[in-house]
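Action item from last week, closing it out:
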Amino acid sequence: MKIAKILPKEKYILYVVSEDGQEGFFDVSPYLGSEAFEDLKDEDNFKRFNNGKYFIEWECGADLSADTIEAKWEKVLNPTE
């Protein structure tokens, strides 16, 4: 999967759109207990990320691969966009 768009939502949820038009919601909250993701508990830090197309990387150095996102996201079955 290649990531086209990412929008941060409330409660550590990311809305992700892939380049092939798939859409889904990814919950980052299960990762917040890890030292690498700890800084993302601050909402401002959570909203500052880079879309690397094959990964998402935050300024604090935490990252998630597109494969991880695709494996664990809640896919939107009837996208509206």
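Closing note: Residues 66-72 form the longest helix (7 residues).
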